[in-house]
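Replying to the earlier thread about multi-chain prediction with a worked example.

Input:
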Amino acid sequence: MSSMLLNHKLDRAFGHMDVDGSGSIEREDLLGLGARILVGFGESPTSPAGHRLAQGFEGIWRTLAAEIDTDGDGAISPEEFRAGMTSAFIEGDHFDAVFAPAAEAVAGLCDTDGDGAVGPDEFWTMMAAFGTPREDVRATFERLDGDGDGVVSVGELVEATRQFYTSADPEVAGNWLFGPL
Amino acid sequence: MTRTEVHGPPHAVSPPARLTERLAALAMPCPVHPSIHLVEAAVTGWAGAAGLDPDPAASRLAGRAFARCETGAVTTLARWLTWMSCLRRAPEALTPVLAVAGGGEPGPAPLERAFSGLWRACAPGMSDAWRERFTAGLAAQREATLSREATLSREEPASLPPGTPADHSPRTSAPASPATLAPLPHLASPAPATPVTGDHGDHGDRVEPYGDTFGRYLFDLVEPCLGVEVPDPVWRSPQWRALAEASGDVAAWCEEAVAGRGHAGTISLERSNPEAEEGKIDRVATRVEELWTAARAIPALTERHDLGFAASREVTRVACAFLTIPRAYLERLLETPRYRHLG
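Result:
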């Protein structure tokens, strides 16, 4: 069951990048996701925050390519994606060094006024970049906003990201990060 | 202080350092495409074969604007920018170039033949709408060039010292805001007529007399070089125009700030006037704020046009390039011999 849940979430993550449904993801797909986030928040890639995000996504790609692209064709299939994400970020120790900085960069962009909290509008902007349907965003936000104060802290958002990509626990709120599974 | 500003009042001495110190959008160096040396070599070879003067600075600008794109996209952009660099020194070629764009055969001139090749490589993959706006931009540039030549021949004082910067076109020099958008940038930012000197040994210095036209040309070329296209209704929307114009203005006004050049068509050096210099930087800061605001409107715009996720992704790739170009262009400026000491 737990591996089924993880695979299901990884398949969802694959879909965030394979936006044209080609069945594989390439470097430009992942960087394109970063571009959508940057544009959504009106941030230049040449700003410090934009630079951190772009570097973070580059790092994820390099790690994925090294771990996953076993046939070296520069394209990652769903099977390669599952296997590599698992070996690099779930069973391996690359999450803190590679994935977390990118997650923190995204969460930092969501915190537009720098108060450490992400409101529903900023959350929607981020979710839109990932292609989450608008109708799912409200439910997701409410799930992540555990105390119901109308905001999600940056720390909670980063933790939800970790839970989504690495946790096999069906009860964690982070499973809802991109809408209902 | 807004989100676009990193620090309070800048402390750096030179205008470019003050820009990069103060404005978040300009704070970080553009990464350069990892294959830039291959691109430079390929484009230099292409230029030589086409009979054009090579312009390595054009390749580096392309390598920064498209730092994370495929090598082919960078190469195509670098070729276009090289071609345009040569065109600015021979604007009379615009008339036969337009004929080629209209389906005519190129003549023997290198600019015509090179354009023919670039056009054949890019135009077929684009829509009629893109081809029309690109050629309309060239036509407008030709008209403006002719008009400018006539004006200069009547008014340019003979005592103007060598190296005095040419003034800017009225639209690009006048502050613009999303609420008062002037005509589309490529239709209204003509390349000033500049004599072909015959001495093209140092291309880096040539960026200065041409105002912002080099930067603005980029906006027409991003789409075909990336192999994507912004749907015409989106492209014509006020939100998209606000984004494109703001990006072009930031690039152009950075150049003015670096050059210490006046705006509103004046021809004067104001490097000795700190208040005027600071005013230019303030103006760039305001426009950067508008640039970022315009970018934030793009996701809702693509949703409103019901583009779908894949098409939206293409639009945001172009928008992201627009957010990158001002810093890339600033770095190109600071590589020129004229401004290198300011970097």
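Chain A has eight helices and four strands.

Feel free to reuse this layout for your own posts.
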